[in-house]
Amino acid sequence: MDIGNYGKIFLSGIGGSSMSSLAKILLLRGKTVCGSDMQQSESTDELIKRGVTVYIGQSAENIAKEQPDAVVKTEAVAETNPEIVEAKNRGIPVFRRAELLGALLDGYKKTIGVAGTHGKTTTSSMITSVFLASGLDFSAILGGHMKQLGDGYRIGETDSVCAFESCEYKESYLFFKSDISVVLNIAPDHMEYFKTRENLINSFKRYLKNTKPGGTVVFNAEDAASLEMIDGYEGGTVSFGLEKGRFHAKNVEMIKGRAAFDLYDGERLMGNVRLAIPGEHNVKNALAAAAACTVYGLDAETVIKGLCDFAGDERRFEYHCVVNGAVIADDYAHHPDAYKVTFDTARAVGFRRIIAIHQPHTFSRTKMMMKEFAEVLSTVDHVIVAPIYAARETNDLYNVSALDLVKLLPNAEYCETFEDIADRVFETAKDGDLFITLGRGDIYKAAKLIAKREKLRRNCE
Length: 461
Fold this sequence. Notes:
Blueprint: E1 8-12, H1 17-28, E2 32-37, H2 42-49, E3 53-56, H3 60-66, E4 70-73, H4 82-89, E5 94-96, H5 97-105, E6 110-115, H6 120-134, E7 139-146, E8 151-154, E9 161-165, E10 180-183, H7 191-194, H8 197-208, E11 216-220, H9 224-230, E12 236-240, E13 247-255, E14 258-265, E15 268-278, H10 281-296, H11 300-309, E16 318-323, E17 326-331, H12 336-349, E18 353-358, H13 363-368, H14 370-377, E19 382-385, H15 402-406, E20 412-414, H16 418-428, E21 433-438, H17 444-460
């Protein structure tokens, strides 16, 4: 995709965190931007304020009315979507989101891509925090809203370097070429697409080949699948891990759920890191970020400062309010492995009870990982299950329901609406509890609804 050929670009699925950032970047590049999404959100509201025409609902009429020069779609938008069909019927070129991002990245002298099943947004944001500490000019394109930026992107004044999140879904990352390619981990995910573990690992092997000549792959020395991926790779590599990697941690201490540790590059002590965000898993994310930034050429003092300054991302163990002494939080986790990490973090913080508010994401994932989700959710005190968030799918092939999961969990109940969920929270919340909404869909709205109700209640007292 040559962006210079298109003056007016229509984004189908414009409300997503990545797509909304790309829309803003296109505006800064002088493009006319319009688009659609299936539902209104804070992202669509903000884009409208910036002068972007946003349609809620997707139809052929949107394309007919706007007559854009090009259409860009998210992976959640199918080829049979009426907007895509209409664009093709009119001879308007249609591109994947990854093609647009790849075209934007090609304009930078150096790029740092962060891939992996878990931790991409946090690690790419940590890298961004280190660059903020450096005082250098840089750009960043993230998969979520970073609190220090107040957004999901940063556009520098030059084309020097850009850090970005590199997603494996439908092999989007094969459109990207990086000078530094970070792979955090490889776990079974998006298996409706990859089908087998071998296919998944081979896909990452292909991704490594996109690393630019003279570039470096940063990989997890303690992840078995990553070691299979790196086997036979002939380019430059740098490893990280709690104990085994070149970049590793010593004297790890958890203080109210937040990690403090000594950061080492080989035998060299770089300094002591005290993370401001909770979770022992973030030690590994910090190690990966430190490796990438050091490879780029940033000094140890800057790396340490940037990691300590990192304030987190929205929807990553994000606190919303307190109800009857119980903390209400939200997390983007949508895989059983990520749930375990979130629950371990909550236990380290010291909550008396953990109540998971689980929104299953897609029919295929719910069907394929029913057992795994049941196992991890059975480890918490109580579970509130919301209806399945369909995203890009229909239930015709899977014939699965959220109630199927509830039946497997003696500690679970089903709530049909966010209002019902909020009711249950206010009925059962006690001092020392954690109620945490979990999922990739719109379950965060339940946490915001609870916060809104609590604010109204306090104002009325």
